[in-house]
From TrEMBL:
It holds the Pfam family UDPG_MGDP_dh. NCBIfam families: NDP-sugDHase (TIGR03026). Belongs to the UDP-glucose/GDP-mannose dehydrogenase family. GO terms for molecular function: NAD binding; oxidoreductase activity, acting on the CH-CH group of donors, NAD or NADP as acceptor; oxidoreductase activity, acting on the CH-OH group of donors, NAD or NADP as acceptor. SUPFAM superfamilies: 6-phosphogluconate dehydrogenase C-terminal domain-like, NAD(P)-binding Rossmann-fold domains, UDP-glucose/GDP-mannose dehydrogenase C-terminal domain. GO terms for biological process: polysaccharide biosynthetic process. Residues 333-426 form the UDP-glucose/GDP-mannose dehydrogenase C-terminal domain. This is Nucleotide sugar dehydrogenase. Gene3D superfamilies: NAD(P)-binding Rossmann-like Domain. The lineage of its organism: Bacteria, Bacillati, Actinomycetota, Actinomycetes, Kitasatosporales. PANTHER family: UDP-N-ACETYL-D-MANNOSAMINE DEHYDROGENASE (PTHR43491).
Amino acid sequence: MAKLLTAGDVPFSSARLSSVAVIGMGYVGLPTALGLHANGISVLGIDHDPQRLEAIRNQNVDLIGPDRERLATALGASGFELTTDVARLAEADAVMVCVPTPVDSRLLPDLGPLGDACDKLVRYARAGQTFILTSTSFIGTTATMLVEPLTDRGLTVGSDVFVASSPERIDPGNVRHTQQETPRVLGGVTPRCTDMAARVIEALSPSAHRVRSPEVAEMTKLYENTFRAVNIALANEFADICADLTLDPMEVIDAASTKPYGFMPFHPGPGVGGHCIPCDPHYLLWQLSETRTGAPLVRQAMNAIAERPRRVVERVQGVLSDNGKGMAGSRILVVGVSYKPGVRDVRSSPALEIIELLTRRGAKVGYYDPLIQRVALADGTVLESIVEPAGSDWDAALLHTVQPDHDYAWVHQCPMTVDATYRFAPSPASC
């Protein structure tokens, strides 16, 4: 790793970037570390969880094909090290904070992981380093959690140390829009901060779109994911409208997509899961509530997204009723529980809430997901995936997530099916 610098060693802007510490080795941090290492930069991956680091060493992690290959290469090469010792971040030229920013059960920001990571960064920071916050959070996070405490430590931002925001744009499981092909937004506290941070970002991305401040970069990320949330809520609403009018919503979307301008297709589904869309807009709404600024469209969209699992359960109950059965005692198989196809991730997955709601209404619920061996529900119940499902063993199948490259022909043996994906072909029923 790079030698320690003192304030007397600055100017540092002309020095070659040789080492980066990445705090948080999850779905963002690990691909980030691998991208940097693939570009000849020594990487120190830091995570508080030794089990996560051991899983990485054993290559037992969820990565797209190219990143899986990079991991195998990195583990057998020099310049790629994993540790739980956060104090070692002082060895690196730059530090990237890549920790999660979830919401709690009340949909309020949970700033614990980010606050802890930033506190430790500030504690071990030294002159000459560049710090980049990639986690999605409220406007002013970079200033509040990095700039102010670094200044309180006696470090001058813009000359002693360099601070910027460059929110991640990683889409887990998506091989069409990789990190190496996706531009990043970058806003430094000062122009020199932006220049210093660009050395890191341009090693990961084809380009860094520079903005005037960290606050602009932070708002850009919130706007991106709020845009998606609002349009997904609209797609779900149109799906319900189409059902009432006995129309196929996917046919309508496909037809509208032929317009070469003014339309972008979003697709309905059983709800929204993962680390971004069900969480990020709530950071904005939380901050706006402090300033008494209204955002009725955003708030309504997030309420509709939160209600979507209940709507799916009501549709299942309606299909059962149409076939002369009640929910109580019915055997229902939820097909797929990850929050999106192709990932081993159930964070905020609508499937978990759907299973709980079906169970509360008296159904006997099981699930099948070839990528998820077991899930834990909010009440502590642990379910294991059916190993070899047979459609005839169940009264109804609810299609939630269809994993790629797996055979689902057996689903057609189910007496009743509800397709909450809208894409299972041939589609037996739509939700």
